[in-house]
Structures are given as C-alpha cells and as structure tokens.
Design brief:
Layout lengths: L1 H8 L6 H26 L5 H7 L8 H13 L5 H10 L4
Helix pairs in contact: 2-4, 2-5
Length: about 90
C-alpha cells in the first residue's frame, strides 16, 4: 500500500509537448469564446458578411435575419467555450 501513497503524493509533471498542446488548446478556446461573445452581442452580422452577400442587414427578409441571428448565437456555444470556462473558474480545493 505504500506505493499508492507515494503515487498520490507526487504531483504529475507535464512534458513540454503536453504544455505546448495545453497552451494552444487554451488559446484556441479563449479566441473562440471572445469571437463567440462578439457574435452573441451583435444585433446584425459583421461587415464582411454584408460584402459576401452583397446585401445589407436591412435588405434581408425577416426569416433570413432570424436564421442568421440564430447561427450567430450558436457560434457562442462552440465546443471550446465550456472548456475555457472550466479552465478559468475551476479551482482545486
């Protein structure tokens, strides 16, 4: 049983590759969260969407506006968002 105590008392160490991967994953999560929040809070689509569609937001019919706004809100619920929230606010007791 002594080996169990020894294993539990030692803190695991991360190799450099794991640290780089964790840093990149966290960075991607933060970027996703920021962009998702921007999309969530905007009442219309971004200027580059207007250029791509060759239409202004006001030129879209109501069902298309509802669809686009719904997709913009879904962007906030990216798979990275929960991971970032857990990483930021989870603390060990």
């Amino acid at each position: 049983m002594d080996w169990v105590v020894a294993m539990v008392s030692q803190r695991p160490t991360l190799r450099v590759g794991h640290r780089v991967a964790a840093f990149l994953y966290a960075g991607t999560g933060v970027v996703s969260l920021v962009l998702g929040t921007i999309y969530l809070l905007r009442p219309t689509f971004m200027p580059y969407h207007s250029v791509a569609l060759s239409k202004d937001w006001s030129a879209l019919d109501i069902p298309t506006r509802v669809l686009v706004k719904g997709l913009m809100e879904v962007a906030w619920t990216s798979p990275d968002a929960p991971t970032v929230w857990l990483a930021l606010f989870w603390s060990e007791s």
